[in-house]
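I'll show a typical protein example:
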Amino acid sequence: MSSSNSSDIKGFLLTLEENSYPMSACNEDDITKLKNLSPTQKLPLTYVEFMSKAGNGIHFLKGTHYTMKVISELKEWAVELLDENNFSRKLTNNQFVFMMHQGYMFWYFNLDEGDNPPVYHYDECIDNLTEFRKVSDTLSEFLMSWYD
């Protein structure tokens, strides 16, 4: 399996755009607000490219919270979920929660793992979970897998 890079998400989104797939882009102000949510003021290039094209909605993520409307609240919701479940691990400033589904699971990446970082997951429905689970080696692969 070849390793994906951030241009994979760009090409994927361009193909969707060319086929008039339903998605709503972010504007420059949105991207600035997004970067300001990061303690480093930087975000992985793959994430910025995805949000630039689909940060205000994309059909295959309908029902999943990730858009500009809620992005500033996701980490707070994730922290509350971990607290409610007495989960032993805590989120750090290096971890950026970028998606949540139905209030019982969320996904994050580490800000210091490059422009196409691995994706980690927490799901309160998994019994005896003691660690966050790595679910993808790259953010681009993770996002594209939702389309399949």
